[in-house]
Specification:
Chain lengths: 463, 93
């Protein structure tokens, strides 16, 4: 295969990626868009095996090893993606992003070792960029994975003089980067990789609960840029196009996500540099709460005219989406007006609740977005909050300085009655106490969301 | 390829990337991020190229590790995105 054919197929794959992103931006075409992207990536990979030229041999050197490594990757990646629970998809995306960043950094390191003294200055600069950003993306994504998987605390990790340590690490990364460009050599490059991995960890540790998805999106854009830089070093137009597209669209997407959550992108990015240790707001307090039984909740619902269901991560964990639909259908059959109040970032990722409820075939028109549902809470008799906490926490409006301050919330406090279905009094993902739990019009029903809902359904049926 | 041509491709790709996702409802943020994530798995192509160039065991070992990671990123990314989007079916009127 000649270089022209190779480049034309690469260009076609680049166009496929544009169509894929375009398709993924609209609900009707999203699935097709993803398939077009997968097709483009497959074709782009296959042509490498059939091209012959000064850059590549035919058949490829080390062909057996290459095919074996791809087989291992398939054996790990496909089952992981197929078997993952709905609740764990966000952290899997974070992990996939991290390994992509790691791959880009490794590619840059190998090509650097291989080029040796033949590398041009521009190639070395791009190699340094890829190693830094790829390593940051790798270690940062691993930390976001651990936070989402709750292998470590979900709260911001802030240590004394943290901002100075982070700033010093960044300065050393840039310094060693400059050293690699001027002095060349394998040792400086490996030191650079190590420092960049450390910086990635330090950069993500201070990020708290609700901001984690924004950081994943940002690291995703970072990885895209490293792929583009590798494309420059390896003289591959396809990698430049694909990487740049992901870098640019990922940046926009990060901003859209930050807007949806009422966060400033700047604040999230540079939170690491400005974060101060905060007074611990999650101290367990001994205050009276009103807890009720499933029967109490059923009676409340039976005499309601309008009920708004506010789902959160607890619903996803308990896999209670089918049970909640059963409850909603039962209430509708009793003539009660039912709507789901969907917070854009309820759960662990934007759109998490829409996906979850769509799985249970909840009619689309019952899902009401935050801006539309908020004015209706005044006419709502009961708001049922199922495993959600931060997205209804009034601290976002009333407590400046708390980690979620400024995030728009679902104003369930305007409803006549509030029912919280919770596992325990533990605060939400962001680790902030919720005043609403102590409100006199709040009733708490403790237990697993699915078990509680099942009891409420049977109690309501019996009435 | 000349550096000028590469710069042109880069700048135009930036604008295309900005343009295609400028209006997306929050429902699709997660699948879109996941799909874009899968697309950068195409670094697999780069990993295969450096595996072909590898002359020492160290280089080969590192590039094979890159191939494994990139394959996980690419194939896993597209599969998990498809699974997310599969759940949207039937929700449309």
């Amino acid at each position: 295969m000649s270089r022209t054919v190779y480049d034309i197929i690469g260009l076609a794959a680049g166009v496929a990626f544009i169509l894929a992103l375009k398709g993924l931006s609209h609900p009707k075409t999203a699935r097709r868009g993803n398939l077009i992207g997968a097709f483009g990536a497959t074709v782009a990979t296959l042509v490498v095996f059939f091209y012959v030229g000064p850059e590549l041999s035919l058949p490829l050197n080390n062909l057996g090893w290459i095919l074996g490594a791809i087989a291992i990757g398939l054996l790990i990646g496909v089952p992981a993606a197929r078997k993952v629970e709905m609740t764990q998809m966000p952290q899997l995306v974070a992990l996939f992003n991290g390994v992509g960043g790691g791959a880009a950094a490794l590619v840059a390191i190998v090509e650097y070792l291989n080029l040796g003294a033949d590398a041009t200055t521009a190639q070395v600069v791009f190699t340094v960029f890829t190693v830094i950003v790829g390593c940051v993306s790798f270690s940062g994504s691993i930390i976001t994975f651990m936070k989402l998987q709750e292998l470590m605390t979900t709260r911001p990790v802030i240590f004394p003089a943290g901002r100075f340590i982070i700033a010093a690490t960044l300065v050393s990364v840039l310094g060693v980067g400059g050293w690699v460009v001027t002095a060349l050599g394998t040792t400086p490059l490996l030191i650079l990789a190590g420092l960049s991995l450390l910086f990635g960890i330090l950069f993500v540790l201070p990020v708290g609960g609700a901001d984690v998805p924004i950081v994943i999106s940002l690291l995703n854009a970072f990885t895209g840029l490293t792929v583009a830089a590798s494309g420059y070093v390896l003289d591959s137009t396809l990698l430049i196009i694909a990487g740049t597209l992901v870098g640019a669209s990922g940046t926009i997407l990060t901003r859209l996500m930050a807007d949806a959550m009422g966060r400033s992108l700047f604040g999230t990015l540079f939170g690491a540099f400005t974060a101060k240790p905060q007074e611990s707001s999650g101290v367990a307090e001994e205050r009276p709460v009103r807890s009720g039984s499933a029967d109490d909740v059923a009676i409340l619902l039976n005499y309601a005219r309008r009920v708004v269901i506010v789902p959160g991560f607890g619903l996803a964990v308990a896999q209670a989406q089918h049970t909640v639909r059963e409850l909603a259908d039962l209430m509708i059959s009793k003539g009660i007006d039912v709507a789901y109040g969907i917070h854009p970032v309820a759960g662990r990722m934007p759109g998490h609740m829409n996906v979850l409820l769509a799985e249970a075939n909840v009619p689309y028109e019952q899902l009401v977005e935050m801006d539309e549902v908020n004015p209706t809470f005044g006419q709502t008799d009961v708001a049922i909050v199922i495993g959600a906490n931060d997205v209804v926490n009034p601290a976002a409006k009333t407590t400046p300085g708390c980690p979620i301050y400024g995030m728009p919330i679902l104003e369930v406090s305007n409803a006549a009655n509030i029912v919280f279905l919770k596992r325990s009094m533990r605060p939400g993902f962001a680790g902030i106490e919720n005043e609403l739990l102590y409100d006199p019009k709040t009733m708490l029903l403790f237990g697993d969301a699915k078990a509680s809902l099942t009891k409420v359904v049977s109690a309501l049926k019996a009435l | 390829m000349s550096d000028m041509a590469i710069l042109s491709i880069f700048v135009l790709s930036v604008f295309v990337g900005f343009e295609v996702v400028s209006k997306v409802s929050s429902t699709l943020h997660t699948p879109l991020m996941s799909g874009a994530n899968a697309i950068h798995g195409v670094i697999l192509v780069g990993a295969i190229i450096v595996a072909d160039h590898s002359e020492t065991n160290l280089e080969l070992g590192l590039s094979l590790a890159a191939i494994i990671l990139a394959t996980i990123n690419m194939v896993g990314g597209f599969v998990v995105t498809d699974r997310m989007l599969e759940m949207f079916k039937g929700k449309k009127k």
